[in-house]
Amino acid sequence: MNLELSPAEQAFREDVRAFLRDNLTYELRRGQRETSSMYPEPETSGPWQQALQRQGWLVPLWPQEWGGTGWTAVQRFIFESECALAGAPLVHPMGVRLVGPVILRFGSEEQKRRYLPRIMSGEDYWCQGFSEPGAGSDLASLKMRAVADGEDYILNGSKIWTTHAHHANMMFALVRTSTEGKRQEGISFLLIDMNTPGIEVRPIATIGGDHDVNEVFFTDVRVPQANRIGAENAGWDCAKYLLEFERGAGIFSGRLRSQLKRVGDAVGELEASGVDVRGDARLVARFGEVCADLDCFEMMELRIMGALQPGQSPGPVSSILKLRASRMKQAIAELGVEVLGGEALRWRRESAGDSVLPVLVPDYLNSRAYTIFGGAAEVQLGIIAKSVVGV
Amino acid sequence: MLLSLTELQEMIESSVLEFLANEYDFIKRARSRDADDGIAPQVWRAFAEMGWLGLPLPEADGGIGGRAMESGLLMRAFGRHLVVEPYLNAVLLGTRLIAEAGRAEQRAEWLPDLVDGRRRVVLAHDERGVADPWSARSTRAQEQGNGFRISGAKAIVAGAPGADAVLVSARTETGGLALFLVPLDAPGVTVEACRMLDGARAADLRFDDVQVERAALLGEPVDASEVLGRILAEAIVSECWEACGAMQAALEQTAEYTQQRVQFGKSISSFQVVQHRLAEMAVCCEEALAACQLAVLSIERDPTSAISAAAMAKSKVGRGARFVAQEAVQLHGAMGVSEELPVASHFRKLLAFAQGSGGTAHAGQRYGELMLLSDAWRYSRTLPSLAHA
Ligand SMILES: Cc1cc2nc3c(=O)[nH]c(=O)nc-3n(C[C@H](O)[C@H](O)[C@H](O)COP(=O)(O)OP(=O)(O)OC[C@H]3O[C@@H](n4cnc5c(N)ncnc54)[C@H](O)[C@@H]3O)c2cc1C
């Protein structure tokens, strides 16, 4: 084993850096830096998506005929790390990383031609309608009904915790098309135009004071059956495939490192204003522990993801990555609050210039969600016990 | 030994809980949170009518004569209901300091109004970058003619918006720490209001060469470090009680929620993973209560042990609060990070507690230093030492 980059990898890294130098503007970095919630707002992620699209680097995971890059896993690791470390906005994943692969795998030619280009151009902004008030960890218990009526389905029910539904014009959703047999076998995967009459989006206030998630109500909403991906009642396969991407296909190291940089920058900022942070031996020790944890996470992620062939998914070890990444996120955010000390008592002050301080408390509050969404920590531990340990 | 509450203590606790249950449920709490200064006038008036604004004062001063335990019980109930009014900084610090350290004419001028709720004085002590509540301040007071000139800044002073005056702690030329009663509209005082993590209101205060007369000095002699240090320590113990109430409420809400929430065809409280987590939370709550009780009993036995008792309690309760808060949110799933239920507010309250007054880790360090310095770790913490027997 060695960690040296080959000349080709080295050259690739230089290309990525050059691209970042030319395209990653101050505004975009600032938009990402000031984001305390999960995803940046569309005015930040949108322009960055356009820049990546122009470069042909938006959808590394897709097949090349549909715009994929054909990168090796190591190239992807380099790319994601460089982007994150440079402070690039997170691309909104719902289209390119979640529904895109599902359409590629299960969609018809016509569906691919219709939706994939619009995902890439950013014309469609997607949200994920899986969870319902009664269906969280136990997703298969979802109830929202889709009843066939001529060429359409008529939808009634509600979805909850729908991230950025208030920005989205499209939703991919799991709906119940049959109540017979196994619960998983009565679910279909539908693409829904959010402007269809009968859809109402209501905001849900959250712990850090951001508006991220919503409740979405459906009353007699007509959706063409042509918007179904895959066969009727076969939506669970789409969902499982999508969840693999949601949990496993991300590269977390760079994002976590850039979050740690925010904390390190906060130390510098506080010291510059006369606060002696480094004089606190306990804090320094904690900083060291968090750094050690992150360093090892990075090695683990590189080893696991770097070994994958294009298109291959990491399988159940992705639960280890997801679990550790979510806890790392929380540990780093908590360190940020520790660094702030008593200043953390201040609630959401206005962002001032280039200061990273205002974002630290909401970031910690919101970080609590990372062990909940996309499969809660307890669910990941169950998967690890069953599929990795084998008990 | 008496290991149960006295009649007065039981009465205080039950009347506070009853009042808050009726007048301060999670919905009604919003009127305090949304009020201009974080104080609903009818709530503060009710506090006055119940006598709570004079709780820690002797009866001669119009108070109830409550000691550390009485304050603790009241604060525990406040924590359970997430009271946002600045009771701690106004009553347990501001009023109490005037009562204990003020000169006769200061007590006469202020105490009746403070106990009645007509006026409010809060302590302005915390400074940016100074974690330890008992360490030196950078705000300075220079003697000039027959008075002082105060310069410096105080950070996130709870309850300052709308207060009539603040008690400013400042270093004097002799090196001691003095307290000055300064009206917030005095020339040279800048008040910048802000909201706090737990919904309360506070302000950053700046003092630019603020001229005060000698009469503004709280008490005599000039050095107030001893009384301030002790009363600050007692207030930290009261905060621990408050956290204890918030932890217990978070535990109860989580126990109730996990019993109602059905996933995979069962209530999630039937999963052993969830049960063990709830059990660990319950253990933390019991331990936190023990820490609070031990702290007040130590202080009542020996007031000079207040700082050590506060450091011990803060370290213990702070660590438990972090665990209980995080697990309460986690076991609520997405509901835990939403404002649909009170649990997110309890989380913020407990975070504010853990971060405040120098922070949890600092308290552990302080306690370790005090223990090693004094050899006190050799002896029972509950049984009276021979010196006290
Ligand atoms: C910020 C945020 C954004 C989200 N965005 C979206 C979105 O865009 N689209 C979408 O569809 N959903 C979204 N979700 C929902 C998310 O997927 C769910 O929160 C998640 O699946 C958990 O479900 P739940 O919240 O109902 O918790 P529950 O399933 O009710 O779980 C509550 C607690 O019980 C534990 N638990 C449950 N079952 C077991 C078990 N068998 N054994 C042990 N413990 C168990 C859980 O781990 C958790 O701690 C989002 C959630 C959050 C917090």
TrEMBL record, chain A:
Pfam families on file: Acyl-CoA_dh_1 (PF00441), Acyl-CoA_dh_M (PF02770), Acyl-CoA_dh_N (PF02771)
UniProt keyword Flavoprotein, yes or no: yes
According to the entry, every stretch annotated as the Acyl-CoA dehydrogenase/oxidase C-terminal domain falls at 233-388
Kindly give the InterPro entries that the UniProt entry links to this protein: Acyl-CoA_Oxase/DH_mid-dom (IPR006091), Acyl-CoA_Oxase/DH_mid-dom_sf (IPR046373), AcylCo_DH-like_C (IPR036250), AcylCo_DH/oxidase_C (IPR009075), AcylCoA_DH/ox_N (IPR013786), AcylCoA_DH/ox_N_sf (IPR037069), AcylCoA_DH/oxidase_NM_dom_sf (IPR009100), Mycobact_Acyl-CoA_DH (IPR052161)
Acyl-CoA dehydrogenase/oxidase N-terminal domain boundaries: 7-123
Boundaries of every Acyl-CoA oxidase/dehydrogenase middle domain copy: 127-221
Instruction: Return the Gene3D superfamilies for the record.
Output: Acyl-CoA dehydrogenase/oxidase, N-terminal domain (1.10.540.10), Butyryl-CoA Dehydrogenase, subunit A, domain 2 (2.40.110.10), Butyryl-CoA Dehydrogenase, subunit A, domain 3 (1.20.140.10)
Q: Which metal ions or organic cofactors does this protein require, according to UniProt?
A: FAD
Q: Which keywords are on file for this protein?
A: FAD, Flavoprotein, Oxidoreductase
Q: Origin, by domain of life?
A: Bacteria
As for family, the record states: Belongs to the acyl-CoA dehydrogenase family.
Its protein name is Acyl-CoA dehydrogenase
TrEMBL record, chain B:
- Name of the protein in its database record: Acyl-CoA dehydrogenase
What region holds the Acyl-CoA dehydrogenase/oxidase C-terminal domain?
Answer: 240-358
Q: Which PANTHER family match?
A: ACYL-COA DEHYDROGENASE (PTHR43884), ACYL-COA DEHYDROGENASE FADE28 (PTHR43884:SF20)
The UniProt family comment states:
Belongs to the acyl-CoA dehydrogenase family.
Q: Which prosthetic group or cofactor does it need?
A: FAD
- InterPro entries given for it? Acyl-CoA_Oxase/DH_mid-dom, Acyl-CoA_Oxase/DH_mid-dom_sf, AcylCo_DH-like_C, AcylCo_DH/oxidase_C, AcylCoA_DH/ox_N, AcylCoA_DH/ox_N_sf, AcylCoA_DH/oxidase_NM_dom_sf
Name the keywords, alphabetized.
FAD, Flavoprotein, Oxidoreductase
Q: Which Pfam families match?
A: Acyl-CoA_dh_1, Acyl-CoA_dh_M, Acyl-CoA_dh_N
Q: Can you give the residue ranges of the Acyl-CoA oxidase/dehydrogenase middle domain? A: 132-210
